[in-house]
Amino acid sequence: MTREEKAIVIDELYAKFSSNDNFYITDASGMSVAQTNALRRLCFEKGIEYKVVKNTLIQKALEKMDTDYAPFDESVLRGFSGVMFSGENANLPAKTIKEFRKKSGSKSPVLKGASIDTDLFIGEENLDMLSSLKSKAELIGEVITLLQSPAKNVISGLKGSGGKLAGILKTLSEREN
Asked: How far apart are the C-alpha atoms of 88 and 21, rounded to whole Å?
């Protein structure tokens, strides 16, 4: 690969990292060609972009970013690396990795690191936690539900006790007469 070609790849990666708040770096070494193709197909079906890129090119693209990705240098950007770009849905690549492992019976791909809204997660031990993250839409739905709940309780309380109050007032007025 010539220097110009490397510069083009670095610029493309920088654009991808800049436009995606969420990305995962995986190690798919030891997988057969059929397994790699199955992983790519599953990623495509889920709307995840999966690219295998040299570590030095990933490192140079990340160095251009405003966020400090230095912790990735020592442990994440070693060996075979594939990058998964998920766009808005932060937990989709983690769920996809777990689904692929279950279907294939393989322990690959291995999560090397992830960046979720510039928060860094390094190591395979974060996979379960990342897969259980809620999406932005799910969180907004929960907040709306929580905000609506007190208002509904107040309204139903007023309707229910309002009838009781009217009944009590009517009984008291009848006693007076």
From this structure: 7
How confident is the model over 15-43, as pLDDT tens digits?
A: 998 888 889 999 888 888 888 899 999 99
Distance (Å, whole) CA 115 – CA 137? 19
121 and 144 assigned to the same domain: no
Say whether both 36 and 88 belong to one domain. yes
Asked whether 20 and 89 are in contact (CB, 8 A), the reply is: no
Residue 174 to residue 177: CA distance in whole angstroms: 5
Q: Which two tokens stand for residue 101?
A: 């492992």
In the chain, the amino acid numbered 68 is D
DSSP β-ladder status, 110-116 and 22-27: antiparallel
Q: Quick one: 50 and 25 in the same domain?
A: yes
Residues 6 or more apart whose Cβ sits within 8 Å of residue 30: 108
Taking the C-alpha atoms of residue 111 and residue 147, their distance in angstroms, rounded to an integer, is: 37
Q: Domain check: are 92 and 165 in the same one?
A: no
pTM of the shown model: 0.74
Buried b (16+ CB within 10 A) or exposed e, 15-24: ebbeebbbbb
122 and 139 in a single domain? The answer is no
Statement to judge: residues 63 and 42 lie in one domain: yes
Q: Same domain, yes or no, for 38 and 93?
A: yes
Can you give the residue range of the structural domain that contains 175?
Answer: 135-177
